[in-house]
Amino acid sequence: MFLQAVGFLFLVALGPVLAASQGIESYENYYNEIHVDDDQAEAKTRNALQSPLQRWPGNKIYYRISEDYSEQEVANVRTAMASFGEQTCVQFEEFEGSPPGGKRYVTFKKSPNMCGTRVGYQPLSFGSHDVLLNERCLTMPAVIQHETLHLMGLFHEQSRPDRDEYVVIDYDNIPRKYWSQFMAQDRTTTFNVPYDYESVMHYSKNAFAKDPSKPTIRALINGEAVEREMGQVRGPSEGDWAKIRIMYKC
């Protein structure tokens, strides 16, 4: 069976414990007032959608930007979107006014307190696929790119089905409510792209740590668990781009 992911991935600031980490996960929150249920929370941890029905059709995705964005916020979104056309065969084309007839499209909206989007193309939905961004997220093109990779069908690197060959998770240092974000899944594909510690979709070594001085994720190097940096908020890695190129037959 193909995975049907219909939930939102939400991103908000999580307070002093997570603020110590500068990874992408410092924006993420699966336990918020939207009440994401357990099945949806589990779905968000998977690495890449297998079903071609949940990939955007064609190689052009239309988008528009909310009128309440500042000039700099608009510029940051456009910079983030342009990178996809530079690195892959998928073009994001901005439009104003009425949407292209019959086409699903993306709308970047401003949110007072959270960032998020649905994961993958929603074949049974119509109209706008919304991306919510707060002012903090809008300052960082890499976070906008992270959200765009989610809407295109990517999940988190440390939840790949083969991740136990590359990382060790210290669940004792993670609050139980976040365990689902670290569990490996076996119903998706990695597209045979090598495991990527530098992915913008990878959590940092101290992600969700009860004690931020100790890593929650260690890398397996020659069979030995070692501490190393992983994840970043500079932008998609070559591995991230490679998955999109394969998914969209570039």
Automatic annotation (TrEMBL):
How the cofactor is bound: the record states: Binds 1 zinc ion per subunit.
Task: Fetch the Pfam families from UniProt.
Answer: Astacin
Name the Gene Ontology biological process terms: proteolysis
Q: Which residues catalyse the reaction?
A: E147
Q: Where is the signal peptide?
A: 1-19
Q: Return the broad EC class.
A: hydrolase
> For the Peptidase M12A domain, which residue ranges apply?
47-250
Which sites bind Zn(2+)?
H146, H150, H156
Q: What is its EC number?
A: 3.4.24.-
Q: Which coenzyme or cofactor does it need?
A: Zn(2+)
Sorted keywords for this record are:
Disulfide bond, Hydrolase, Metal-binding, Metalloprotease, Protease, Signal, Zinc
Q: Name one GO molecular function term.
A: zinc ion binding
Cysteine pairs forming cystine bridges in this chain are C115-C137
Q: Which InterPro entries match?
A: Astacin-like_dom (IPR034035), MetalloPept_cat_dom_sf (IPR024079), Peptidase_M12A (IPR001506), Peptidase_Metallo (IPR006026)
Q: Which PANTHER family match?
A: DISCOIDIN, CUB, EGF, LAMININ , AND ZINC METALLOPROTEASE DOMAIN CONTAINING, METALLOENDOPEPTIDASE
Report the protein name in the record: Metalloendopeptidase
Q: Which species is listed as the source?
A: Drosophila kikkawai
What lineage is this protein's organism placed in? Eukaryota, Metazoa, Ecdysozoa, Arthropoda, Hexapoda
